[in-house]
Amino acid sequence: MKFAVFMTLFAAASAFSPAFAPAARSNSALNVERREVFSTIAAAGVSVAFASPALADGAKSTATKTRARGVYGGRIANLQKAVAAGDFGAVVAEKNAFVLFNSGAIVSSKQGAAIDATNAIFAAIRSQDKAALKKSYDSYCKQFNINALPDLTNDSQAQGYSNDYDFRVRTDAGKIYVR
């Protein structure tokens, strides 16, 4: 206890003591003492040595996979009528949904198969083959379990989401039942 009091008083007293500067020194960048340079280098080395690496924890978490499956899987599932009608433009307009679904909702071990299935869909579009488009789209949806979000707009007992950060907000699946 006495030592702590002594150190506190010593620190307070030394804070107000005058600092003695060396005799006339130029403020030029070329007039730097060797001691200052080495102390700066040592301080930088210590700060780098004790720096902790940045760790990103949300890149492939369950929450981001669920969000990608809900948002982009829902967009892909909504293309079912366009694929049945042979509307190539509607599928091309949702190309980013396929890319983002493949990278966000599919586990790394199955991403190659997902990319191949997506390439089959767009190969059918390039060849303007409606039957191949329908077959490859159906295969893709079945293989990766793509379903549309449920439509809860007319269900009076439904609870679609619980906070504003849920991916179902502002969709047909996002409805809060309030009594």
UniProtKB/TrEMBL annotation:
All residue ranges annotated as the Photosystem II Psb31 protein domain in the record: 59-145
Residues annotated as signal peptide: 1-15
Gene3D superfamilies for this protein: Sodium ion translocating NADH-quinone reductase subunit C-like (1.20.120.1740)
InterPro entries for this protein: PSII_Pbs31 (IPR040933)
Residue ranges that the Swiss-Prot or TrEMBL entry lists as coiled coil: none
UniProt keyword annotations, A-Z: Signal
Superkingdom to which the source organism belongs: Eukaryota
This protein's record includes keyword Signal: yes
Protein name as it appears in the record: Photosystem II Psb31 protein domain-containing protein
